[in-house]
Fold these 2 entries.
Entry 1:
Amino acid sequence: MTNPNKFEEIASKLGATARETELWKQLMEVSVAARGEEEKQVLTEVLRSLIGELGENQVAEKVTQIANELPEYPVVKVMQYIIQVSASLRREQEHTLSQLRQMLSELATPIIRIWTDMLLVAMIGNIDSQRAQDIAERLLNRVSSARAKVVIVDVTGVPMIDTVVGGFLIEMFNAIKLLGAEVILTGIKPEVAHTLVKLGVDFRMVSIARDLEDALRRGIAITMEESKKRRQLALSLAGSGSRESGEGDVF
């Protein structure tokens, strides 16, 4: 069995700080002596700390140094733990980055209910294909949940839209129409207009407004007309029901 003093000696060479020295010492003690769940738990915690501070490559190099000084050291087992812990940390980092991207997308592209049955989507900054897809998914969910009748898409803050992103926008407009809402597009720059024309956008599926004020006027007119139709339908159904009731009384 390795002398504990040897662990301290090696750990002092490997650790740049008192904390690192203690972690290296703990790593050697546990990997040599512990077994089962205790070994798995402690090695995982120690390696997470070391990899977080030094990176997986440097940790692997220093484990190799330990093996050079301690021939009986279970280097293969420790390397396997390094691989497992590194993979786990990468998954956590990817999940965190995904959440941050989602938060950024929501902050950069707010979806606001500005009138009865009307939503405003203000796009700001450069839009790549991933962000365009995120916006489309969020918007379609919101249109469905809010039962919106009008969606105003303001691209004033978008400097350029390439053909890939333009294709996503066309698909989004089509999907909004399938959900029963009208699309009003505003804030179009000459460059953006050129891209949309090249893509062959069917401008019958989307209304174009000069500016946000014009878009709001059109949107309010659409929602008011929709409300008028619903009232007329309700009155018509109520009148039809009354007539049927009266005819039933005659018999």
Note: DSSP finds nine helices and five strands in the chain.
Entry 2:
Amino acid sequence: MECVFGFTHHGLFVNTYWCYSGGMATIGFPDPVALAGLSTLDDTLRRQLYEYVTECGEPTSREQAAAAAGIGRTLAAYHLDKLADAGLLVTSYRRPAGRSGPGAGRPAKLYTRAEQELNVSVPPRDYELLARLLVSAVQGDTTGAVRAAVNEAALEAGRQAGKEPGGDLVASLRGCGYQPRVDDDGCIELRNCPFHSLAQDHREVVCGLNLHLVDGVIAGSGHECAHAELDPRPGRCCVVIHRPVEDST
């Protein structure tokens, strides 16, 4: 039996017995920070609030989170602060727009997703080390044959993922871990890179793979009018999807 739990946002990769942070993997005991952070999400309401803040993609107030979850502000604040204490959310303070100076009141406490990355695996597994070895092999292949094969595999994996939710492009991207957000022009911004840790050291290979994977999702979902392109920006995936407003389903 194998159990793997985790958040794959940014930063440190942790599993139950192995810690990997860009160099050699070293054996050790279960990381208490990772275990504590993950166990915080065992509460259903807390997990719902975490997912809401993550989906917002911008600093979220206690009032907004409470309204989204259908609970009181005090209860929302309790769970949000628990998530922040566990390192899953980060906090900041800001006054509402248009209110400043004496009498403006206290700044509101806001919450955003933390950049820390947590993974826990039982029994010990080190999939990131394997991924780094394979990506290094792609980079070392001067013929380009290995990279072409990897990109084709990514394209096919994307096609299969795109078919699963009945042609729903956004749902397919969400299922792949991209955390998509649609703007008013129909453009889809991918606010999370599922391969962020690898991309820091192997950006060209990983971004190319991402583009082929997303192209596959578009093809599999049947949205031929959509077009994916590389547009790297901080805090999001390197791929952005353009599509007509009428093709927004």
Note: The CA atoms of residues 51 and 172 lie 17 Å apart.
